[in-house]
Amino acid sequence: MEDKKIAWGIAPIGWRNDDIPEIGAENTLSHLLSDIVVAGFEGTEVGGFFPKHNVLNKELQLRHLKIAGQWFSSFIIRDGVEEASKAFHKHCEYLKAVNAAVAVVSEQTYSIQGTDKNVFNEKPYFTDKEWDQLGQGLNQLGKIAEEYGLKLVFHHHMGTGVQTLAEIDRLMENTDPNHVHLLYDTGHIYVSDADYMTLLNKHINRIHHVHFKDVRQAVKEQCEREGKSFLQSFLTGMFTVPGDGCIDFTEVYKTLLETNYSGWIVIEAEQDPSVAHPLEYALKARNYINEELLPLENGSLIKA
Ligand SMILES: O=C1C[C@@H](O)[C@H](O)[C@@H](O)C1=O
Ligand SMILES: [Co+2]
């Protein structure tokens, strides 16, 4: 992050999606990275199709782009922390080699994220014993991340055992603030609880990475009525870029400024790239940031 407090990125998910690797498969790494430059972002997250670290670094350097982090599916409850640690070491090694800031961890034991189950009412729940296992395991993974100069940021997610505000509260209570941080994803908390500000205000001190994902309310309601899965919901257009849905990002951004948030804010709007042109939506997001969010910085400086 150097001297700048907030870095703006955009995730590959609008071009290619690790949850459904077939969609957008024609979009190459060069295409994605060059679009990111055209849209005026400083970096991105690592996608499942990204190459070895040296190849990626070359492509990044040519475009003056940086890597914020990468998703890691942990199975601490299913496999135990020793097994999870082995895979996590490899993950962190790669992230260190591409100079990333964070390792994004999501506990995927019992997750229905990639299944055809109704994401609105079939989410899994952990037992007390499983919560303990998860908390202790994440503390260990957090220490591993630090060995590589990274912060572990936990991703609350629809269709998983850590989805609702109450579950995020429990996870925060059950983990060591020195080693386990939080990723705040506006889209996931909105679809889960509707209220996205309470989570932000409550856990701002633990938040070290942010995903800006907007939600189309009418599409969300339709998906809920039809009992759609997570994958079907985003293919139907439940998510979009900030400024194009019902979340008030000015309120979110003001809070981040007032609390001196330092880190990445990554636009992450999964849609079907054959329906929502990735560069068009990246430009739409950038315009919204420039016109509605960045001007708030002056207001917040005056207030401070
Ligand atoms: O951060 C994320 C990564 C994706 O793989 C995930 O499904 C998406 O919803 C998300 O928020
Ligand atoms: Co996210």
Overview of the structural elements:
By secondary structure, this protein is an alpha/beta fold. It has one domain (6-303): TIM Barrel (Alpha-Beta Barrel). It has 13 helices and ten strands. It has helices spanning 29-38, 53-63, 76-79, 81-97, 128-147, 165-174, 186-193, 197-203, 217-225, 230-236, 249-258, 278-293, 296-303; strands at residues 6-10, 43-46, 66-74, 102-107, 151-155, 180-185, 207-212, 214-215, 239-240, 263-267. It has an eight-stranded parallel β-sheet with strand order 1-10-7-6-5-4-3-2. A two-stranded antiparallel ribbon has the order 8-9. α4 runs parallel beside α5 (128-147). The radius of gyration is 18 Å and the shape is globular. The structure holds the ligand O=C1C[C@@H](O)[C@H](O)[C@@H](O)C1=O and cobalt (II) ion. Residues 155, 185, 211, 268 line the site of cobalt (II) ion. Its cofactor is glutathione; Co(2+); Mn(2+).
Structural class by sheet pairing and helices: alpha/beta
| Major sheet description | 8 strands, parallel
Looking at the structure, the CATH topology is TIM Barrel
Secondary-structure element string: EHEHEHHEHEHEHHEEHHEHEHH
Q: Specify the CATH architecture.
A: Alpha-Beta Barrel
* CATH 4th-level superfamily: Divalent-metal-dependent TIM barrel enzymes
In DSSP terms (H or I, runs of 4 or more residues), the helix count works out at 13
- Mean pLDDT across all amino acids: 96
Number of domains: 1
The side-by-side strand order for the widest beta sheet comes to 1-10-7-6-5-4-3-2
Radius of gyration in whole Å, from Cα? 18 Å
How many beta strands in the DSSP annotation? 10
Uncertain runs: none
The helical percent reads: 40-55%
Percent of sequence in beta strands: 15-25%
Amino-to-carboxy terminus distance: 22 Å
Give the distinct bound molecules.
Answer: the ligand O=C1C[C@@H](O)[C@H](O)[C@@H](O)C1=O, cobalt (II) ion
In the CATH hierarchy, what is the class?
Answer: Alpha Beta
Overall shape: globular
